[in-house]
Design a protein that fits this description.
Blueprint: E1 19-29, E2 34-43, E3 47-51, E4 61-66, E5 70-80, E6 83-88, H1 112-115, H2 123-126
Antiparallel strand pairs: 1-2, 1-4, 2-3, 3-6, 4-5, 5-6
């Protein structure tokens, strides 16, 4: 089926289930040396639908930076106004983008309220005159 650059195929020809979501990602167009922030509207193992102020062209290679997955290569499959579809070169696990990012291994596992402000004076400090500043 021949498609014009500003049309989307009619009917649903997807082979894999998709997940609706709202995710910001970075879309790189290697041939143009251009990158743009986009909104990912739905995602599956085989591709995604995105929206943004990009001038995508059907058949153009793209690389996307997806949260918890990293760089994913693909090809623009269809374009309609500011929305476009990308078919991935290799399948991904779409559930990974919904997971929260893991903290670094060296991060303090306690949150701010558990560890307290850094400048807190403890009871032991109150008894040490060199730690108490006169007002």
């Amino acid at each position: 089926m021949l498609m014009s650059p500003n049309t989307m195929p009619t009917g649903d020809h997807r082979q894999t289930p998709r997940n609706s979501l709202f995710l910001l990602a970075t879309c790189h167009f290697p041939q143009r040396h251009e990158e743009q922030r986009i909104k990912v509207r739905n995602l599956s193992a085989a591709g995604l639908m995105a929206e943004g102020p990009v001038q995508a062209v059907v058949g153009e290679p793209v690389a996307l930076d997806l949260r918890n997955i990293g760089r994913v290569d693909g090809i623009v499959a269809w374009v309609q106004d500011t929305r476009f579809g990308v078919a991935f070169a290799e399948a991904i696990d779409p559930t990974l983008v919904r997971q929260t990012a893991s903290p670094p291994a060296d991060a303090d596992p306690r949150n701010y309220y558990q560890r307290g402000p850094v400048s807190v004076i403890t009871r032991q400090d109150e008894t040490r005159p060199e730690r108490v500043r006169p007002i």
